[in-house]
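Why run this: before we spend reagent on co-expression, it is cheaper to look at a predicted model of the complex and decide which construct boundaries make sense. The entries below are exactly what would go into the expression plan.
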Amino acid sequence: MAEYIESLQKLAEQFGRLEGVGKKNAMKMAFSVLDMTAEEAEEFSKAIIEAKEKIHLCPICQNITDREVCPICADPNRDRRTVCIVSDPRVVISMEKVREYKGTYHVLHGVISPMNGITPDKLKIKELLARIDDGEIEEAIVATNPTVEGEATAMYISRLLKPFDIKVTRLAYGVPMGSDLEYADEITLYRAIEGRRDF
Amino acid sequence: MAEYIESLQKLAEQFGRLEGVGKKNAMKMAFSVLDMTAEEAEEFSKAIIEAKEKIHLCPICQNITDREVCPICADPNRDRRTVCIVSDPRVVISMEKVREYKGTYHVLHGVISPMNGITPDKLKIKELLARIDDGEIEEAIVATNPTVEGEATAMYISRLLKPFDIKVTRLAYGVPMGSDLEYADEITLYRAIEGRRDF
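The model came back. Tokens follow.
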């Protein structure tokens, strides 16, 4: 009968467009909105518009921000000699949670994926090259995902950065902490053996 | 760093308020909104407000609707002599999918749960009694969930309906189709044995 309630159906469709939301969950969410007060729904509705309006890309690192320059690029305590190249703003959030990395970031906004029409020119690569061309950066850590596309992007970028006189590194691959070796996949195990270190 | 992007954080909090949405998924959804075009976000925002504004309760069955009277109550082909009493509009949707039931509904909007402050007067019970008092209804099918609270509500309602000269029935309980008896819980199995039928 939900088909009969057009505005409920429409709202569920909107939720269904979000990443990782299935049809059933979308309807659950639409019902949650009905359970809200009119003020709460108004606030929710406004939050969507505000987020879209206020958030843009940092002109330096291309990360999303609601300020002129993102807080990381604006922070005088961050080490501008090191740049960590990531595919997505979400990775920046994960990295920052570690509280170990003190350099800056560069967000590519995707990985090279010709099958999906994502060619290098669709990524924020020329912005990266311009930053490195400025001469302040001494090390670039390529931190794309350890997937086929992530690896290909890493290789592409490392080759692009070769002509510059900087150190290009990448994250260590291996078995994740707390994991069970019995269930580790072969490629991860291979990487862990290949990258083994002395005690 | 998401903490730094206030409008993104706010939007994620709004998603986090929805039923069944955890913190991580809420942030994923907020990012999905950023991936939308301005028009899509506008449409999403409007869908929330519209659903809240247009949807109200059907004055007859108390189901949610965006019309004056809900399409089921307004349908001349539905059998007004049978009413199926459910806790929630979502149950109506599930029942309608079966395409077997031709009667009307009555939505209680909850089950009796004194621990959560839901006493019988918080449910649409007096509206149900008024409908039955009208004299058209001949059978009431109490279709609350087979949970402790659902059963208690069913018992309460069946007792309330006793003084009226109508048939009061409930759904059959048993093992669900396609299930594995090995994994069925004891209460379900007990109900299945208790309710066993001749071939």
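Chain A touches chain B through 56 residues (CB under 8 Å). The first strand of chain A starts at residue 56 and ends at 57. Bring this page to Monday's planning discussion.
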